[in-house]
Amino acid sequence: MNRKNLFGLTLAELKTELAPLPKFRAKQIAAHIYKHGMKTFDEMNDLPKNLRAELSTRYEIKIAELLKRLDSRDKLTTKFLLGLSDGAAVEVVLMRHDYGNSVCISSQVGCQMGCRFCASTLKGLERNLTAAEMLGEIFFAEEFLRGDGQKLDSVVIMGTGEPLMNYDELIKMLRLLHEDYCLGMSYRKITISTCGIVPAIKKLRDEKIPVTLSISLHVPDDKLRSALMPINSAFGLKSLLAAGDDYAQATGRRVTYEYILLGGVNDTEEHARRLAKILSGQLANVNLIPFNPVDERNFLPPTNNAVKKFFHFLNTHGIGATIRKEMGADVNAACGQLRAKIIAS
Fold it and tell me: Which one of the listed residues 91, 133, 142, 169 is annotated catalytic?
């Protein structure tokens, strides 16, 4: 008999699932699962012994199985490949910053967006992740840190997949993550990345949850952006930037525009000039990301000089910019690289 997994259920869902048990039992079990990280009912000492035995025959508490772990030489980045119940695998990256610990999770198994420079999309889309599976990625990292006497400070949904193409499960996960009986994480500690699904950005705005929106821009003109990012053919820069500005105004949250610098492709001063022009007046900042080489993609990283000049131009022309510190290059930290290597082996 297959046991149903209780991990990922909301308190309301637990109350329904465990009826006719008293509702306070669901609250106890939710606290044990989410607050205390318990994986078996035997650990739940405040439940009657016969109830623990009965629950064990019907239910399980399971997140994901570790398939592979890679640690960077500087010990600041750890990448996990996690196995799911159907045999699929997803990547999770734990990053230790001087301002706290952050986990980058995946929202899909594979990706269908087809960005030309990205490893995530090499094998296409396999399926969406459930809210429970996404939450499981976070809990895996949180428990790993707890074992080292540390805590998880923030969540970035910027791994494999397009989060806004898995909208309903994403929102369910975010709301559960925020609940006091779960991790109680502030929405302001959560960042969602999108390559530019404009209708979903508008929908997210109306959810009234002040997460940080990160838009993968990468190119300041429609022609080149469409060549590198097929989504631009559906939602061009004008509509995307309008949606980003609208999100910022509605939430009061500054939008981050991610810009991968590809050597000789989008890293010149002219590109910086166009970028500054289209972002002028927006409540936004730019995160410059020197390209992390992918074997299967025919792009080169920019020179250090090109990065510095691009950064300097933006900051002296009214656009706040940062350069993302390279983390985990020695552990295939670019999204999809580890999974692709495992699949190919």
Answer: 91
Residue 195: how many other CB atoms lie within 10 Å: 24
Distance between the two ends of the chain, CA-based, in angstroms?
Answer: 34
Catalytic residue among 104, 115, 182, 335: 335
pTM: 0.93
Task: Give the pLDDT band of residue 344 (cuts 50, 70, 90).
Answer: very low
Residue 115 annotated to the active site: no
Residues 73 and 178 in one domain: yes
Q: How many CA within 13 A on the CB side of residue 9?
A: 23
Q: Do 124 and 43 fall within a single domain?
A: no
pLDDT tens digits for range 181-207: 999 999 999 999 999 999 999 999 999
65 is catalytic: no
**Structure letter (DSSP) for residue 10:** -
- Give the residue numbers spanning the domain of 35: 4-60
Token pair 């009965």 in the structure block, residue: 54
Q: How far apart are CA 93 and CA 102, in angstroms?
A: 8
For the chain, the average pLDDT equals 93
- How far apart are the C-alpha atoms of 132 and 82, rounded to whole Å? 14
Q: How many CB atoms lie under 10 A from the CB of residue 233?
A: 11
